[in-house]
Amino acid sequence: MGNLESNIEAILQRNKRVEADKAWETSMFRRMTIGILTYLTASILLWMLDAPNPFLNALIPSVAYLLSTVTLPPLKQWWINRYAPKGDR
User: Fold this and answer.
1) Band of the pLDDT at 71, cuts 50, 70, 90?
2) In this model, does residue 1 exceed pLDDT 70?
3) Which of 14, 46, 66, 83 suits a disulfide with 54, CB 3.0-4.6 Å?
4) Domains contained in the chain, number
């Protein structure tokens, strides 16, 4: 009986880790952090390359990333509803 209980406890601990990972992956904090880091990296790179308006042009990849985080979840759900096998939904 102890083995069964330890297996159940291991599954419950795994579920907690998975839930925490999912919360992190979908958090606004994570999205904004990546957007800011993308902007800073692009700004520095464009500035080092002596590109015109590096700080303005660095907005393009940052805004594109943030827009993708808004638009892709609905597309993912549409794809799952349309193409995923019934048991995987």
Assistant:
1) confident
2) no
3) 46
4) 1
Task: Read off the pTM.
Answer: 0.73
Measured between alpha carbons, how far is 38 from 66 in angstroms, rounded to an integer? 10
Tokens read off for 64: 């594109």
The mean pLDDT value for 35-55 works out to 98
Calculate Rg over the CA atoms of the chain: 21
Domain around 32: 2-88
* Residue 28 structure tokens: 């606004």
Structure tokens at 29: 């904090």
User: Could you give the angle at the alpha carbon of 33 between the alpha carbons of 78 and 12, nearest 5°?
Assistant: 65
**Are the CB atoms for 61 and 42 separated by under 8 Å?**
yes
Q: What ranges in the chain are assigned the alpha helix state H? A: 2-25, 28-48, 54-57, 59-83
